[in-house]
Design a protein that fits this description.
Largest sheet: 6 strands, mixed
Number of helices: 4
Strand order of the largest sheet: 11-12-15-16-21-20
Low-confidence stretches: 1-24, 97-102, 104-108
Structural class: alpha+beta
CATH class of the largest domain: Mainly Beta
CATH architecture of the largest domain: 6 Propeller
CATH topology of the largest domain: Neuraminidase
Number of strands: 25
Distance between the termini: 110 Å
Number of domains: 2
Order of helices and strands: HHEEHEEEEEEHEEEEEEEEEEEEEEEEE
Length: 386
C-alpha cells in the first residue's frame, strides 16, 4: 500500500514536472514571439524612417534649384484646424512707417512686432465656414495659429466656398476674396485687420465675373481675376479657348478690372483687358516692372512658376468680346515667357514681397498630408532671374 502511494506520488510528480516544463516552454515561446514581433516592428519602423528620409532628401535634390534660392517666409497657419489653404496676400512689410495710419490703431496688436503681415484664405475640410488667417512673421508661428476670421457674404450668410485667392489694397482699404463661384467678395481691410480672432466678418459687397473666380491679384491699376481649367473636371467657356503661339490651345482667361473708387467694390464691374493663359493656373502676381507671374499645378505632379514680360507695355494685337464689349487681349505663351522654374507639387496663389514672389502650397493640409513629411508646411519666396 505504501509502495503504491509512493508510486502514485512519483507519477504525480512526473506529471507535474511535465506540466511545468510545458508551461515553461510556452512561456519561452511566448517571450520569443513577443521579442520577434518587437524586432519586426522595429525593423519596419526603421525602414519607414529610412524611406521618409530618402523621400525628403530626394525631393530636396529634385527641386534643389528652387530650394537653393528660395527663402522660407513663414509656417502656413491653419493646417491643424483643417484649413485647405489657397490664397495669400502681403498686407504690409517690415519697416512701413505708415501702416497704423492705413490700417487703423486697432491693428496695433497684430502689428506690434516688426514682421511682415500676410493674409491666407482657404476652405475647411469639414465644410464649415471658410476662413482668412492673419500671420505676423515677427512672431513665433506654427500650424496652430488660431488668428483667423470667418467669412460671410454681404447678406451675413456664412461663406463655405473655395476662397481660392485673396488680395488687398491698403490705399483703398479693401480685401477681395475669390472662389465664391463666379463672384468676388469685397471686405473692409480695417475690419479684416482689427476684428478679434474667431470673429465673423461680413462682406461690404460682391460682384459677378463671367467665369469661375479662382484667384486674384491687385497691382495698383487692375484687380486681376483668373479662372482655372482642367479638361476632366474644370471646364471653361468655349469662347475662352484660344490658339496661342506654338500651336498650343489655351482654355482660360485672366480679366483686368480697373480701379474705381466710386464703386462699392472699388473696381469697375466690367473688365478692360484680358490675358489668355495656359491650363492649370492656380495663382498670379505682378511685380513693379509689370512682369506677370503664374503658378500652375494639379495633384502630385511638379508645379511650375512662370514669369512673362510686361505685355501691357505694348498695344494689343488681338481683341476678345467679354460681357458684350470688345477689349484688348494679350497672350501669356511661348512668345512672351521670360523664364519657367519647376517647383514641388501643389503650388497655389502668389503675392509679391519686393522683388521676390511668395508661393502658397496646399500639400501639407489635412486633405493631402504628404507635404508635412517634406517641405510643404512653409510659404517660400523666390527671386526669378531672367
Amino acid at each position: 500500500m505504501e509502495d503504491k502511494k509512493i508510486q502514485d506520488g512519483n507519477q504525480n510528480e512526473s506529471a507535474g514536472g511535465e506540466v511545468i516544463k510545458k508551461a515553461k516552454g510556452r512561456g519561452k515561446a511566448s517571450k520569443f514571439s513577443a521579442m520577434t514581433l518587437c524586432r519586426i516592428l522595429g525593423i519596419l519602423a526603421g525602414v519607414v524612417v529610412l524611406l521618409l528620409f530618402c523621400l525628403k532628401v530626394g525631393e530636396t535634390i529634385r527641386y534643389g534649384k528652387f530650394y537653393g534660392k528660395a527663402k522660407k517666409e513663414f509656417s502656413i497657419a491653419g493646417l491643424d484646424d483643417g484649413l485647405t489653404v489657397q490664397g495669400i496676400d502681403l498686407v504690409t512689410e517690415v519697416g512701413k512707417d505708415d501702416k497704423d495710419q492705413v490700417l487703423g490703431n486697432g491693428a496695433g496688436s497684430l502689428l506690434s512686432t516688426e514682421g511682415c503681415v500676410f493674409l491666407e484664405s482657404g476652405y475647411m475640410k469639414d465644410e464649415s465656414t471658410s476662413r482668412i488667417y492673419r500671420v505676423n512673421t515677427g512672431r513665433k508661428l506654427s500650424a496652430n495659429n488660431k488668428d483667423y476670421l470667418l467669412l460671410c457674404d454681404e447678406k451675413g450668410t456664412p461663406s463655405k466656398t473655395h476662397a481660392g485667392g485673396l488680395t488687398s489694397s491698403r490705399e483703398m482699404g479693401k480685401v477681395w476674396v475669390c472662389g465664391a463661384g463666379t463672384s468676388v467678395l469685397v471686405y473692409d481691410l480695417n475690419t479684416v485687420m482689427n476684428s478679434g480672432a474667431g470673429s465673423e466678418i461680413t462682406a461690404l459687397a460682391s460682384f459677378e465675373v463671367p467665369m469661375g473666380s479662382a484667384y486674384c491679384f491687385y497691382d495698383g491699376t487692375y484687380l486681376w481675376v483668373g479662372e482655372f481649367y482642367r479638361e476632366q473636371n474644370y471646364p471653361t467657356d468655349p469662347s475662352h479657348h484660344l490658339q496661342a503661339a506654338g500651336g498650343v490651345l489655351h482654355h482660360s482667361l485672366i480679366l483686368g478690372y480697373p480701379a474705381d473708387p466710386e464703386n462699392p467694390g472699388n473696381v469697375k464691374t466690367t473688365p478692360e483687358v484680358a490675358l489668355s493663359i495656359p491650363d492649370l493656373v492656380q495663382g498670379m502676381a505682378v511685380d513693379k516692372e509689370g512682369r506677370i507671374y503664374l503658378s500652375s499645378s494639379y495633384a502630385v505632379a511638379s508645379s511650375h512658376l512662370s514669369i512673362y514680360k510686361n505685355v501691357l507695355a505694348e498695344d494689343a494685337k488681338d481683341r476678345i468680346e467679354i460681357d458684350g464689349q470688345e477689349i484688348p487681349l494679350y497672350f501669356l505663351d511661348e512668345s512672351t515667357i521670360l523664364k519657367q522654374e519647376t517647383l514641388p507639387p501643389m503650388s497655389e496663389d502668389l503675392c509679391m514681397k519686393g522683388d521676390r514672389v511668395c508661393i502658397m502650397n496646399e500639400s501639407a493640409t489635412q486633405k493631402y498630408l504628404f507635404g508635412r513629411l517634406l517641405h510643404g508646411k512653409y510659404v517660400y519666396s523666390y527671386k526669378m532671374e531672367n
